[in-house]
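Narrative of accomplishments. A recurring question from our advisory board has been how the design workflow behaves on a single, concrete structure rather than in aggregate. To address it, we present the structure tokens for one chain from the evaluation set, followed by the sequence designed for it. No filtering or post-editing was applied between the two.
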């Protein structure tokens, strides 16, 4: 993950309060609010996958979602 500024860190935090930021290697969203993965305090979306039929047991970061990168202003 590239180095981010304090502004980007804040934008990231705000975005994750309302949207999932990342995609898991199982293909479903994780790492953020309303993600496809169960939340574990304090970070939402790092537990097992909640999507029916998916056997993913733990969020494994695959990539950031496009809207997140645009909002925060980061590029892979
Ligand atoms: Zn998963
Ligand atoms: Zn899944």
């Amino acid at each position: 993950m590239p180095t981010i500024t304090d502004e980007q860190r804040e934008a990231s935090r705000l975005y994750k309060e309302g949207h999932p930021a990342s995609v898991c290697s199982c293909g479903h969203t994780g790492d953020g609010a309303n993600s496809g993965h169960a939340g574990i305090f304090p970070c939402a979306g790092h537990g097992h996958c909640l999507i029916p039929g998916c056997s993913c047991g733990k969020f494994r970061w695959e990539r950031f979602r496009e809207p997140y990168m645009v909002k925060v202003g980061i590029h892979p």
